[in-house]
Design a protein that fits this description.
Helix content: 55-70%
Order of helices and strands: HEEHHEEHHHHHHHEEHHHHH
Strand order of the largest sheet: 1-2
Distance between the termini: 27 Å
Strand content: under 5%
Shape: globular
Structural class: mainly alpha
Number of strands: 6
Radius of gyration: 25 Å
C-alpha cells in the first residue's frame, strides 16, 4: 500500500515532438444518431467512452493551463523564478502530472529554462516519494515485488502524452520483465534489465548522499508571501481571514492546497515568519493528514488476509515522509520501531504455526 501525504528516468527529459494529439478515433466514432422525424434536427448520442474522451483537455489546453497555474504560483510567492540556488523554491503541488510533463517537453519558449528544470525536479520528487515507502517494505521483507509494483502503478498514472513516448514504453516493459523475474527470486533486485527505472533509482540511492530538492528558506518566504496575499484579499473584501472552514462569515484560508513539506515549514517556523495562529492551523492540518493516512492504512489492512498488513502500512507511511514532515505530524521513531517489531514478531509466529515441527506435518494452517 502506498498512502500519499522522477528517478533518474531518461524518459523524464524526452522532448514531445508529435504535436498536439487529437482525441477521438474509434471511441469518438461510436455514436448513435437518432432522428425523431424529418422536421426535427438530428440528435447525436455519444457513448460514455466518447463523452469521457471529449472531456479530457488536449495537450494545447494542458500547456495553457500549466502556464496559467505557474504564473499564479509565482505571483502568489512573489518570485520571478521557481528555483533558488538550483533548488526548488516554489510549491508546485497544484500542477498535475500532465502539466508538469508539458512544461518539461515544451521547447517553443513558453517556459523558461528554470521553469522546465523546476518541473523536472518536482517530477523526480514525486517519483522519489512513491518509491520511499515501498523500498522500506522491500528491505524489511527481502521482497522487491512491492517496490516494482509501486513503480508500475506510478507509471500507469501518468498522462497519455508521456505514456505515448518510447521512453515510457521502454521503462514500463522493463518493469514487467523485472516482475516476471521476481516471481522466481523475490529477494534480489533484478539486474541487467535495460531501461529499468527502479534499478537506476536504487543505484542512485545507494551511491549518492540524500540532498534536499527544495530550498527551505525560499520556500518559507514564498509561502509567507502567498498567505499575506490571501489575508490582504480578505481584508479588501471586508472579511476576517480564518483557518476555520465552518466560519461562513470569515474568508477561509485553506492550507489543504499546499503539500505536506510546505505545511510542515509553517509548523517548524524556523525563521519566525509565521504567527502563532498560522502555526497552530498548520499543525492541525498536518496532524489531520497523518490521521487520515493511518486510518486508510488500517482500513486497507482490515481487507487483507495478511496479519502483518497494518504494520507494513505504518512502515510504508512513515518511510515515505521526510524527517521534517514526520516531526510535524507527530510521528516518532518509536512508532517505526514498534511497527517493525510487530511485523517481525507476527511473521515469526506465522512461520512457527505454518510448520508442524514435532511431526514434520503440513502445519497448523493445513486444510483450513
Amino acid at each position: 500500500m502506498q498512502v500519499g501525504f522522477y528517478s533518474t528516468n531518461a524518459y523524464a527529459n524526452a522532448r514531445h515532438t508529435q504535436g498536439y494529439p487529437v482525441h477521438g478515433g474509434a471511441e469518438a466514432r461510436n455514436i448513435a444518431p437518432r432522428q425523431e422525424d424529418d422536421s426535427q434536427a438530428t440528435v447525436v448520442t455519444l457513448s460514455e467512452a466518447a463523452r469521457s474522451a471529449a472531456s479530457v483537455p488536449d495537450f494545447s489546453q494542458v500547456l495553457a493551463a500549466a502556464r496559467e497555474t505557474l504564473n499564479q504560483l509565482l505571483a502568489e510567492a512573489e518570485r520571478a523564478s521557481p528555483l533558488e540556488n538550483d533548488k526548488l523554491a516554489l510549491d508546485m503541488t497544484r500542477l498535475g502530472e500532465r502539466e508538469l510533463y508539458a512544461i518539461t517537453v515544451n521547447d517553443d519558449g513558453l517556459f523558461t529554462s528554470d521553469e522546465r528544470k523546476a518541473a523536472e525536479i518536482e517530477m523526480q520528487r514525486r517519483f522519489d516519494s512513491a518509491m520511499t515507502g515501498p523500498i522500506a517494505i522491500s528491505e524489511l521483507t527481502a521482497d522487491y515485488r512491492p517496490l516494482y509494483r509501486a513503480a508500475a502503478t506510478w507509471l500507469d498514472a501518468l498522462g497519455p502524452e508521456q505514456k505515448a513516448s518510447p521512453q515510457w514504453k521502454d521503462a514500463r516493459a522493463a518493469i514487467d520483465t523485472a516482475l516476471a523475474r521476481l516471481a522466481g527470486e523475490k529477494g534480489t533486485s533484478p539486474a541487467g534489465i535495460a531501461n529499468d527505472p527502479v534499478a537506476a533509482w536504487l543505484e542512485k540511492r545507494a551511491t549518492t548522499e540524500k540532498e534536499a530538492a527544495t530550498d527551505p528558506v525560499s520556500l518559507e518566504e514564498g509561502l509567507r508571501a502567498a498567505l499575506d496575499k490571501q489575508y490582504e484579499k480578505a481584508r479588501q473584501e471586508g472579511r476576517i481571514p480564518t483557518f476555520d472552514a465552518s466560519n461562513t462569515r470569515g474568508a477561509y484560508i485553506d492550507l489543504g492546497i499546499f503539500d505536506a513539506e510546505t505545511v510542515s515549514a509553517i509548523v517548524h517556523n524556523r525563521n519566525g515568519l509565521f504567527s502563532g495562529e498560522k502555526v497552530r492551523a498548520a499543525t492541525a492540518e498536518i496532524r489531520n493528514r497523518a490521521n487520515v493516512a493511518l486510518s486508510e492504512g488500517y482500513r486497507d489492512a482490515a481487507k487483507s488476509s495478511d496479519p502483518t498488513a497494518f504494520a507494513r502500512n505504518i512502515i510504508s507511511i512513515y518511510s515515505s515522509l521526510t524527517p521534517e514532515v514526520r516531526q510535524a505530524a507527530g510521528f516518532s521513531e518509536n512508532m517505526l520501531s514498534t511497527a517493525m517489531s510487530s511485523f517481525e514478531t507476527t511473521s515469526r509466529l506465522l512461520e512457527m504455526m505454518a510448520t508442524n515441527t514435532q511431526g514434520g506435518g503440513a502445519g497448523w494452517f493445513a486444510g483450513r
